[in-house]
Amino acid sequence: MPDPRFFESLPTLDVAGLAERIGAEVSRGGDRKVSAVAPLGTAGSTEVAFLGDRKFAEQLKATAAGCVIVPAAAADLAPASAAVLVSSTPQAAWAAASLLFHRPHALDKAADPVFAVEDETVVLEPGVVLGHGARIGRGTRVGANTVIGPGVQIGRDCHIGSNVTIGFALIGDRVKLYSGVRIGEPGFGAAGSRAGPVDVPQLGRVVIQDGVTVGANTCIDRGAYDDTVIGENTKIDNLVMIAHNCTIGRNCLIAAHTGISGSVTVGDGVMFGGKAGIGDHLAIGEGARVAGGAGVLANIPAGETWSGYPAKPIRQFLRETIWVSKQASKKKDDRE
Fold first, then answer.
1. pTM for this structure?
2. How many angstroms from the chain centroid is the CA of residue 28?
3. Other beta carbons less than 10 A from residue 253's beta carbon
């Protein structure tokens, strides 16, 4: 269930009524009541999940979801306990369902700062806007024109720069967010439909642990359903992009213009050089190093240093670079 501090739960529907509203066909269980959406692996008896790819067929067979949305060819794989909806575009149908069950709390009006701050040591510079339910710990300073969304929790002794936006986030103590940082924006999720790509609502959070520093104009997206997590004492440079559902370990260093795609897991003590690019659903092992400008398309084992595009262990990259250089020199000599 999405965090109620950030999302409002909407009324329960029966499966038949849901099918009508999202353009799906009821295969069985039309009278089942459902009230939320969730992924296959964590969905419960009142939640709706979907199968977007046959590689998750085993998860479908084992799911505890009350209702599943599947392509017609996979309907027989759904467990007997689940109601079944058939759609040619299951993820898009699930996205439409999520809008019927979950709505982000809107910043309709600013909260009274008296109820949002822990004590008089909190400093709110001119133009700060606080959403309902936001909380700010003692000793924290919030810069001018910063917007802190409904339900956001900020710890003690933090420094929040000017023109920062924070939503759907839980932030620890001694965190620094420099000017222009964007925390908790929707991750980049789209699903194909007959009308073209549709946005998939992002129902997760951002969790920033103690002692993290985030440089100016960096973006950290909230999770699609689970959390995006930044581990303790990690230091992030300006203009970095961290996508939804990433888990970044403790004591990492991430230099400017690095882009980390969705659902990447980064171990403790990892270093990223400037302009490194990381493909989605990868694992970067503890203590690994990624050279500046590297394009990572495979998992990196713990302790290794990778470089190049596509990135590979640095010794291999250097050997291949030297070989190519020698071949080019040889061809030049032959022409001359």
1. 0.93
2. 33
3. 15
